[in-house]
């Protein structure tokens, strides 16, 4: 995403969505942390706020320990210290990778219901707005009407679409799409895949095959393999990221549905334990509801209002 | 699905047992570990704190610590509290007057549309005649998805007319159900956030428009700490009657299942265990508690067996097993049936003392293997299939060549075959031991469990087994269309 993209789509809308989250929390931090030096009880309360945000016990303890050793002078300082620690752990988002020559390929992967198709549609719309010729590939050949769903996004966004027969081989659709991308001089090819639980080995193997087929047709592709994570997911996010990472070579995470009351804390462990950064944040079902990940915004929302 | 939590808790208990004399500090330490285990299993923080507090109050008492087996008592307290957390009794769907309306609500992506299809399929198996109602007008092609789903399970679908609102479709549903002679209708709605006022108002309007008998909140089993907030949010705007937990076939820790009943008073009525139309089961809290504590879930195992076993084929197989013993052809047939019962790991998880059977986990079977196994068995002579013990090195080489596999594959097949026989014998032995033990069983377990076909076991309803009446008396499930209400567990 370019700087202009960030400005146009990102900050304002993102902040508004995240503010909803914060307000919904009712400013818990404020009531927990009054003024004065920060005691153990208050640090534990901070830990609980993080746990309630799906950060996980280990990560919450680690983060609060860092604040504890820094010996903050008051509630404000403790909070700021925590926000900084979270933001630093997450790190900044870099723009999505592009091909040096030929079509750029981005593939969406993830478990059922995470938000892959909607994200693909939003991404296509942005790419089209940036002046790219965009193609969507409906490589979810399993779910009833999945291709129809993506086709509607193609219509909305101004992208083309390649689809296959229902129940057909997803790798075949990917292959056709890669071919078509070259033939039609497409700038960006976005591939939507079927939702799958990471515990299903044959399905993970199928995903690996889709990636390989794309890579054989377009060397260097796919340039991004994005794991779409539902912001409401709990500790299972780690298992998802690990297994999808191994099977599909995931390059980054899209945190979807961040307009909910969930704060996407599970993405923290995915970042620190597996090194997978969050690249994009989804904040609704509308075509514009996608922006680049901002670690400060994320950290503020996670730690909560004061 | 609760393997991780189960292992953690069993670890805590193992350490507790190792103490002999128990001091309050030992219990505190154990409870700290239980707290972490529950949090890491996505159990909601408030629920965890209340749970630990209740256990501590009961456990750190004079008579508990001074008793002969304090660790065992503490473990029993945890088990009882877990059962209470999960909701005690199984809750079925209540329909009321026909046509009865069931409305599905929930967050985006929770699995409502898939669940609607499965529910329709389940109702049909129960002898009902459902109608599906497509009231998700937000998600692109959601209506089309439901239409195709309805087609797949053979259930009619009420489609919206262009320009209609969700509430308008809902209003038409009851009349349409009557017109088509359907006794139930299932309304699929759009995913929505509990904090979206406009959409929550709409949900309430839809529920009102159909005079719903059941309003089920569909929750993804991998939901983290937000599960309770979401359920309370929905519950505050519509009168929810229960919960459907979806995607339970993954490896999510399942904390939502443990949190929701306690925090909202709503029973988990159904669980989704896959993407096939039949992958929807009633939720049994007592069995779930047993599974978490490593005590197995033989009841579900039996039910899955019964759902899959073809009576005539099983009868023939059983006669053959008793006369000739199990051969490789039978093995193949059994493998296919076992496969239809669900992932082998899940099945093993239902057997008590899962840890003891870990050796059998080397029996790894998936779809590709079945094809290979078929090829290998086909390359054998009838004599070799009947008496696999005659397969020496040179025969195995021939079989490998003939089936286009390696000798290692043939060896593995024969090892798996032996492993499968051992496992079935284990289940058979278990069932005989449990029958003898009778009264010593954890709650919810029948004194008469069955087993896998071909193992010469007594499955209620099959020849050579006690008659169906006796099985019902003993609490064992009998093959019948599942009614919405289950018999009370003895």
Observed structural traits:
heterodimer, A: 306 residues, alpha/beta, Four Helix Bundle (Hemerythrin (Met), subunit A), Rossmann fold, 2 domains, eight-stranded mixed sheet, 12 helices, elongated, B: 490 residues, 434 Repressor (Amino-terminal Domain), 3 domains, 8 strands, 8% strand, disordered C terminus
Describe this structure in words.
The complex is a heterodimer of chains A (306) and B (490). Chain A is an alpha/beta fold and 306 residues long. Chain A has two domains: 3-90, Four Helix Bundle (Hemerythrin (Met), subunit A), CATH 1.20.120; 104-293, 3-Layer(aba) Sandwich (Rossmann fold), CATH 3.40.50.300. Helix content of chain A is 51%, strand content 14%. In chain A, strands 3-2-4-1-5-6-7-8 form an eight-stranded mixed β-sheet, with helices on both faces. In chain A, helix 10 (236-248) links the parallel strand 5 (224-230) and strand 6. The model of chain A is unreliable at 1-11 (pLDDT under 50). In chain B, helix 5 (70-86) packs across helix 11, helix 8 packs parallel to helix 9 (197-210) and helix 19 packs across helix 20 (407-437). Mean pLDDT of chain B is 77; it is low at 353-365 and 439-490. Chain B has three domains: 3-86, Up-down Bundle (Four Helix Bundle (Hemerythrin (Met), subunit A)), CATH 1.20.120.140; 100-292, Rossmann fold (3-Layer(aba) Sandwich); 299-474, 434 Repressor (Amino-terminal Domain), CATH 1.10.260.30. Chain B is flat and about 75 Å long. Chain B has helices at 3-17, 24-40, 45-59, 62-66, 70-86, 112-125, 142-153, 166-179, 197-210, 226-237, 255-264, 285-292, 298-308, 311-323, 328-340, 344-349, 367-378, 382-386, 393-403, 407-437, 468-474, and strands at residues 100-106, 130-135, 157-158, 184-189, 214-220, 242-246, 268-272, 280-282.
